[in-house]
Write a structure and sequence with these properties.
Layout lengths: L1 E5 L11 H15 L3 E7 L9 E15 L2 E12 L2 E9 L16 H18 L6 E5 L5 H8 L10 E6 L7 E2 L2 H6 L4 H4 L14 E2 H8 L2 E4 L2 H9 L7 H6 L4 E3 L29 H11 L9 E5 L8 H13 L3 E6 L4 H13 L6 E5 L3 H10 L2 E4 L9 H7 L3 E5 L2 H6 L16 E3 L4 H17 L1 H13 L4 H16 L3
């Protein structure tokens, strides 16, 4: 098959969150399986250009219809770690992608409406006719709308769209100006409950809803999160739309990039190991203790790596820290928040605990240190309030660190409680709690710390169960190929 990804992000050149990792990992898996994959991206000024090989201009004057006129674009081509990528550079006074940042501007909806329009024009004018156009999140929600309302009458009648939602919280709710700009026009037609009208804001368009309504198939990033989006508030207002289109909505668990997250070859950790030589992991624990000025005693080391914000359960992270210290464990944290108040609070905690040789907080993010924490810790906590998929628990298991997680989203699909799961013993790989309160977290941590101290052989079994689990893109890639094949056969 010939697949074109249309995305606002791609790791590592333009990465804000998990979206970039998914587009890269899935694209590579599809190529390994013999399919042709190309990726269309905006040409941001803030990309990591040293990660692009052979970048050169292939199209000087791509004319993109816009507001009754046209905007001229250049199209560039380059390889990102082997992936074939096209970068669209508009020459416009709006300066859409030369702002020093990927997101966060008042006209983001217009910026990515233009990107969606330009991507479709590039496919049309270059005579590219993929079997599947796979677009992602609200930024490309108008791609299927443009395809089925405009471009299928211009020679693209055989193209099919798969639309993946990575984060329901951000949906691209905007005004009708994007219709006039993109050539869709007819606000009276699109401002309809069955099309793009936002379910809770009369007169507003919802770009993500457009993606759901017009796509041939819709996915989200884990099976349990698909259920949450339909039946709980995790759909952030789209539950009714997903119910209407339930026949084409599924959850596919994200994969983990085993070239990046692999303790056998990880260039950031001092001691390499695998499931058969797991004792080598403890050398990483000692090195991590040295780096973080922790005392070397017979204690479990528990870690947290990730953002510090409400979604991640910051109140539970803080409680876990003090609970671990009070119950004979050490704790390390690497993370930063987008809100000054949260960062300031954790800086205060860092200062308060500065002399404690069983705790170290690193406010910020360091890729090398993240790898060393995963390799050095005995356990990792993920107490998220919501977590569509989650990579932390997957990475932890890959590195033999037992995850302690809350039962939400993709955490439900990947972590199976040692004591309470209905899975066979060889598939149980961590500890799970349900309620977002201190008692639930304490119960899971108590069981995990107790097993580490009193039953080391059983704890090692949890470690090896997690390491033996295949969390690569292999299964997810196979699932997506099945979706692509069935989508090609549908009108």
């Amino acid at each position: 098959m010939y697949i074109v990804m249309v995305s606002a992000e791609l790791a590592p050149v333009a990465k804000v969150g998990g979206l970039g990792d998914v587009v890269f990992g899935l694209s590579r898996e599809l190529e390994v399986r013999g399919h042709s994959v190309e990726i269309i991206l905006p040409k941001y000024d803030c990309m990591w250009y040293d990660e692009i090989w052979g970048l050169h201009k292939i199209w000087e004057e791509l004319s993109v219809p816009w507001y009754g006129g046209a905007v001229s674009c250049s199209v560039w081509f380059g390889f990102v770690h082997g992936r074939k990528c096209f970068f669209i550079e508009p020459h416009s006074q709006d300066n859409f992608f030369n702002r020093g940042s990927f997101y966060g501007f008042h006209d983001d909806s217009m910026r990515f409406t233009f990107f969606s329009k330009a991507a479709m024009e590039f496919l049309l004018q270059s005579n590219k006719r993929p079997d599947i156009i796979h677009c992602h999140d609200w930024q490309t929600g108008l791609v299927p709308v443009l395809l089925f309302e405009i471009y299928n009458r211009l020679g693209m009648e055989n193209q099919r769209v798969v639309y993946t939602i990575h984060n329901f919280k951000h949906q691209g709710v905007t005004g009708e100006s994007v219709l006039w700009a993109s050539g869709l026009c007819r606000p009276e037609y699109y401002l309809h409950h069955d099309r793009l009208l936002d379910n809770f804001n009369q007169g507003a368009l919802n770009m993500m809803k457009g993606g759901v309504v017009y796509s041939n198939h819709v996915t989200t990033v884990s099976p349990h999160h698909a259920w949450e989006a339909r039946y709980t508030d995790q759909g952030h207002g789209l539950s009714q739309t997903l119910a209407t289109h339930h026949y084409k909505f599924t959850g596919v668990l994200n994969g983990l990039d085993y070239d990046v997250w692999n303790p056998e070859i990880d260039r950031f950790i001092p001691n390499h190991y695998d499931v058969w030589q797991i004792e080598e992991k403890y050398g990483n624990k000692e090195c991590l203790r040295e780096r973080m000025w922790l005392r070397k005693e017979f204690k479990p080391l528990i870690g947290y790596v990730g953002r510090l914000d409400a979604q991640k359960g910051v109140h539970l992270i803080q409680h876990a820290m003090f609970y671990c210290l009070e119950h004979g464990a050490q704790f390390v944290l690497l993370g930063a928040g987008g809100e000054d108040g949260i960062n300031d609070h954790f800086y205060h905690l860092k200062h308060y605990l500065n002399e404690n040789q069983d705790c170290h907080l690193e406010i910020g993010f360091n890729e090398q240190l993240a790898h060393q924490i995963y390799a050095g810790c005995d356990m990792m906590i993920v107490p998220s309030l919501f977590e569509p998929c989650g990579l932390t628990q997957m990475i932890a298991m890959r590195y033999g660190s037992v995850p302690v997680v809350r039962a939400v989203g993709g955490l439900v699909d990947t972590v199976f409680d040692r004591d309470n799961s209905d899975k066979p013993p060889e598939e149980r790989n961590g500890y799970v709690f349900h309620d977002a309160d201190f008692l639930g977290l304490e119960s899971a941590l108590s069981r995990a710390i107790g097993l580490w101290k009193d039953y080391p052989k059983e704890f090692r079994r949890l470690m090896t169960n997690g390491m033996a689990n295949d969390l690569s893109w292999a299964q997810s890639g196979e699932h997506y190929i099945g979706i692509y094949e069935s989508t090609r056969q549908k009108w």
